[in-house]
């Protein structure tokens, strides 16, 4: 079912202070400024829900949003800080890295991460290494290419194709892949349908 309601729950400085909840959870992760918060706002039809900024490093906490809280099948959407924000000091970057890694490893209701990649930029070591780390730790993830409005159809297809080829150098199988534009409202239905499909899959 589509997203009919979305409410901010809490911002947490670490995984230990995240909500005590067993609702299925999906988190958006990726480099600073890739468009995580904007995409959450687009999916939830509320431009003010998650704070966005032209300056990287806007989101610095783990932000929980309750989706369809008035329905039998509610779930959580999580906005995470971006990784690899160059202007942040080394200490700050290390702190965020640890916060993100601990969240990914220890957050029990986490069903899948969505790794966001700017569709204009060729495969970056920081994203490839992060996804390798997810694989090594058996953390499920999907990829969302963001800012699709910034490219023409042909260039978009070529970039995604090149990205897939790069990933297949080290992966046997590709994760689910989505393409989005928060600006144009593209890709939301596919992402929400995927989440609903995972929610409906019985866990052993
Ligand atoms: P941090 O919280 O700093 O890690 O960034 P973030 O990944 O949450 O990015 P955010 O959503 O704040 O967006 C960063 C900038 O990209 C803002 O200026 C957005 O308006 C812009 N942006 C986000 N998504 C899109 C998109 O789909 N298309 C275009 N053209 N711009 C976008
Ligand atoms: Mg953000």
Structure description:
- The protein is of the alpha/beta class and about 200 residues long.
- It has a single domain, classed as P-loop containing nucleotide triphosphate hydrolases (Rossmann fold), CATH 3.40.50.300.
- α3 links the parallel β5 and β6.
- It is globular.
- The model has no long low-confidence stretch (mean pLDDT about 95).
- Guanosine-5'-triphosphate (GTP) binds next to α1.
| Residue windows where pLDDT falls under 50 for at least 5 positions | none
CATH-defined topology? Rossmann fold
CATH class: Alpha Beta
Number of domains: 1
Terminal residue distance: 23 Å
Beta-strand proportion: 15-25%
Mean pLDDT: 93
CATH superfamily: P-loop containing nucleotide triphosphate hydrolases
Care to give the gist of this entry?
The protein has helices at about 35-45, 90-105, 125-135, 155-165, 190-200; strands spanning about 5-10, 25-30, 60-65, 75-80, 110-120, 140-145, 175-180. It is an alpha/beta fold.
Helix and strand layout, with pairings?
Elements: E1 6-12, E2 25-30, H1 36-43, E3 62-67, E4 75-79, H2 90-106, E5 110-118, H3 125-136, E6 141-146, H4 153-167, E7 177-179, H5 188-200
Parallel strand pairs: 2-4, 2-5, 5-6, 6-7
Antiparallel strand pairs: 1-3, 3-4
Bound molecules: guanosine-5'-triphosphate (GTP) and magnesium ion.
Characteristic key phrases:
single chain, 204 residues, alpha/beta, Rossmann fold, seven-stranded mixed sheet, 5 helices, 7 strands, 21% strand, globular, binds guanosine-5'-triphosphate, binds magnesium ion
């Amino acid at each position: 079912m589509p997203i009919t309601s979305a409410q901010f729950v809490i911002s947490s400085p670490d995984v230990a202070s995240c909500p005590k909840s067993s609702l299925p959870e999906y988190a958006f992760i990726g480099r600073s400024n890739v468009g995580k918060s904007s995409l959450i706002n687009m999916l939830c039809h509320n431009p003010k829900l998650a704070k966005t900024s032209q300056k990287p490093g806007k989101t610095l906490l783990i932000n929980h949003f309750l989706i369809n809280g008035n329905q039998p099948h509610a779930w959580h959407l999580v906005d995470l800080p971006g990784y690899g924000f160059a202007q942040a000091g080394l200490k700050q970057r290390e702190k965020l890295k640890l916060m993100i890694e601990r969240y990914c490893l220890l957050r029990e209701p986490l069903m899948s991460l969505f790794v966001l990649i700017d569709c204009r930029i060729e495969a970056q070591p920081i994203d490839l290494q992060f996804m390798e780390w997810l694989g090594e730790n058996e953390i499920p993830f999907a990829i969302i290419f963001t800012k699709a409005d910034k490219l023409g159809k042909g260039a978009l297809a070529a970039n995604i194709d090149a990205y897939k080829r790069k990933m297949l150098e080290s992966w046997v199988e590709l994760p689910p892949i989505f393409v989005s534009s928060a600006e144009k409202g593209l890709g939301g239905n596919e992402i929400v349908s995927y989440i609903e499909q995972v929610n409906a899959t019985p866990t052993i």
